[in-house]
Amino acid sequence: MTDIAISVEHLSKMYLLYNRPVDRLKQSLFGPFGKNFARIFWALRDVSFSVEKGQAIGIIGRNGSGKSTLLQILAGTLALTEGEYQVNGRVAALLELGAGFNPDFTGRENIFLNGATLGIPEKEMRKMESAIIDFAQIGDFIDQPVKIYSSGMFVRLAFAIATCIEPEILIVDEALAVGDAGFVIKCMNRMREMRERGTTIVLVTHDVQTVRSFCDSVLWLHEGKIRGYGSPADITARYLQFLFEEQNSQIVVVNEQTLNTPSNSKTTINAGEKSLLLANRPDLTRWGSGEIQIQAFQLDNGLQTGSYLFEYGQQLKLTIQAKAAVDVSSPFIGFGFSFRNTKGLDIITFTTFEDNIHFQGLQAGQTITLNFETKNILAPGSYALVLNIEKRLNNKPQYLDFIENAILFTVVSEKHIFSLVLPDIDHDIQVL
Questions:
Q1: Helix (H, G, I), strand (E, B) or coil at 404
Q2: How far apart are the first and last CA of the chain?
Q3: Which residues make Cβ contacts (< 8 Å) with residue 395, sequence separation at least 6?
Q4: DSSP secondary-structure letter at 33?
Q5: Long-range contacts of 315-319 (CB under 8 A, 24+ apart)
Q6: Percentage of the chain with pLDDT > 90?
Q7: 170 in Cβ contact with 74 (< 8 Å)
Q8: Is 395 in a helix, a strand, or coil?
Q9: Half-sphere exposure of residue 383, counting CA atoms within 13 Å on the CB side?
Q10: How many CB atoms neighbour CB 89 within 10 A?
Q11: What are phi and psi of 143, to 5 degrees?
Q12: Answer CATH for 4-238 from 2.10.260.10, 3.40.640.10, 3.90.170.10, 3.40.50.300
């Protein structure tokens, strides 16, 4: 018995596009005689990947990259043009909002309609009916026509149906983007439970943090082709870098070499063995406008040298040195860092904005040294140090320098820690 739930090999999907409606008619009439009135558009081109049973794969990419097309093919609602795919198990899919629902039917009637569509007998759906209604939590609207439902109510009912029938493969296409926060948490918990029971999950979302925390692998599509495929931490970092560079393509970069060329001035960090210069490091995922650049940093506990092994409960000291490449006059400049786990999830994040510290800009050639100190409350494991400098305009960050993987470090502990962090908790116990 195969352990592969989904196998896709060299899959492609082509559409014929017409400039005018009449061109479609001309193509049908004269196409057999060699005339062409259409343009060829490849929504997907040579896509290959596989997903093991019980695994979750995230699919990311800009709008129009082919994500929804791929899911429709996997769900069996759209035919492919080239290649092949295999889906091993019963599939439940949440695609476009309202898909598979009859708008004139009530929510209760649509439960059985969806069951019939999936080949589930009415007798079995009767057994699941109460569980579906309880999970959806739409009250008396369950007996009202779904055409009066809000988008959130649609999602609640659709997700409840798709997950309560216990599919072997669950496909979700941005469906949770319209749900309220409480219901989204409820859905994520349900999907985690399903995955633990062996359900394979394919998730399309623009929420990178969700992908990092939930998925085992990530597929990045761009213009119908695979741009990246691998671990969530790696692929999402590359994706965010791509989005930043694209969104800020109109911003004048200080110098193409600024982020990779060592400064002529000496660093002022007295970090001994553990001082790290950031110039000429090919291992870094790094982007930003380059107006101010981080040159060096130091992370230690004041005790150990030459090692990035820290114990739970120790004081961690982080020193960052940065230098302005040009005059930067914005009064809303902030410096920050985060400790990120191997899934790519930021466990602890801090910026000077959090303490309402705003720097009034720097002059070209001017350096700034920042010292941070915090108690290590991280659970045992491996972490990456992320560094950043940003400007905030209308509460939106504009990165001057962003470094994904400045270093990797390890935390150990004699305590048994079952959460991501273990802060000091004041407590008072009274026995009466």
A1: strand
A2: 60
A3: none
A4: G
A5: 315/373, 315/374, 315/375, 315/376, 316/373, 316/374, 316/375, 316/376, 317/371, 317/372, 317/373, 318/371, 318/372, 318/373, 318/374, 318/385, 319/269, 319/271, 319/369, 319/370, 319/371, 319/372
A6: 49
A7: no
A8: coil
A9: 28
A10: 14
A11: -105, 20
A12: 3.40.50.300
**Mean pLDDT (whole number) for 54-79:** 94
β-strand partners of 410: 309, 382
DSSP 366: -
Lowest mean pLDDT among 69-73, 266-270, 331-335: 266-270
Rg (CA), the chain: 26
- The distance of Cα 114 from the centroid of its chain, to the nearest Å, equals 30
pLDDT digits (tens, 9 = 90+) for 14-40: 998 888 888 888 878 877 777 888 889
- DSSP labels, 268-310: ----GGG-EE-TT-TT--EES--SEEEEEEEEE-SS--S--EE
Between 256 and 86, the higher pLDDT residue: 86
pLDDT at 98 over 80: no
DSSP letter, residue 178: G
The contacts of residue 289 (CB under 8 Å, 6+ apart) are 248, 251, 252, 253, 254, 398, 399, 400
143: left (phi over 0), alpha (psi -120 to 50) or beta: alpha
Closest CA relative to residue 218, chosen from 55, 69, 9, 65: 55
- Top-tier CATH class for 252-412: mainly beta
Q: Is the pLDDT of residue 269 over 70?
A: no
Supply 22's token pair. 């009449």
Domains of the chain by residue range: 4-238, 252-412
Stretch among 3-17, 178-192, 266-280 having the lowest mean pLDDT: 266-280
User: What pLDDT, on the 0 to 100 scale, is given for residue 254?
Assistant: 37
Which parts of 18-107 are beta strand (E)?
39-52, 56-60, 82-87, 91-94
pLDDT in tens, 321-333: 999 999 988 778 8
Angle formed by the axes of helices 151-164 and 181-196, nearest 10°: 10
pLDDT band at 275 (very low <50, low <70, confident <90, very high): low
Tokens encoding 316 = 């961690």
